[in-house]
Design a protein that fits this description.
Layout: H1 4-18, H2 24-32, H3 52-74, H4 87-96, E1 105-110, E2 113-118, H5 126-135, H6 142-149, H7 157-160, H8 166-172, H9 174-190
Antiparallel strand pairs: 1-2
Length: 193
């Protein structure tokens, strides 16, 4: 397992090498001034440790790049769609899909062991809040926005509440499906402890 500092360095390098959109420098500055690099990714599931959020974001980005590269190889020569997605889009979606978790975790001790509590001052919804935070700095394409919005798949509260168009979203916007798959791979394969 890499240290918080090593993951921070890897994140900043990946972000800086792939994301060049207007406002991206301000977004990175905001992340660096927040608890993004030291926060957990959850209270008890994947990445429930200091630095888990940054580590998870890196895992999702790497998994997303691998998935897209595999599909490009399998269906070489495809003229459009997911195969035309830029590295910048992959970095934006993979590295930033969970920025909604900035500032929502508080450390606490339970029986001498550090755990985390969750409190969201701005409960817009998981994917929705990430979109809102990102769009304060950079413009997202429709496909990037839909991928980030629906990266939770069937775990999203609106799907649990009856939203019935998730299949349509994944059919029409494959980046959304691939981001969801990458998120699940990172959560259940890379971050099991």
């Amino acid at each position: 397992m890499k240290s918080v500092a090593e993951n921070r360095e890897a994140f900043v390098e990946a972000y800086g090498s792939a994301i060049h959109r207007e406002g991206s420098d301000r977004l990175l500055s905001w992340l660096e001034g927040s608890d993004f690099f030291s926060s957990p990714a959850s209270t008890k599931f994947h990445g429930a440790y200091e630095g888990g959020l940054c580590e998870h974001s890196l895992h999702v980005y790497n998994r997303l790049v691998e998935l897209i590269d595999q599909e490009r190889i399998l269906l070489a020569g495809a003229p459009s769609g997911i195969f035309a997605v830029s590295r910048e889009s992959l970095a934006i979606c993979g590295l930033l899909h969970d920025v909604c978790k900035v500032g929502v975790y508080r450390p606490r001790l339970v029986n001498g062991e550090q755990t985390w509590s969750f409190w969201d001052d701005c409960p817009l919804g998981h994917g929705e809040k990430s979109l809102w935070l990102i769009e304060r700095y950079i413009h997202l394409s429709a496909e990037e926005a839909l991928a980030i919005r629906w990266h939770m798949g069937a775990f999203d509260d609106s799907v649990k509440g009856g939203f019935r168009n998730l299949g349509h979203v994944y059919e029409e916007f494959p980046l959304a499906l691939f981001l969801h798959i990458a998120d699940m791979q990172a959560s259940y394969l890379d971050e099991r402890r």
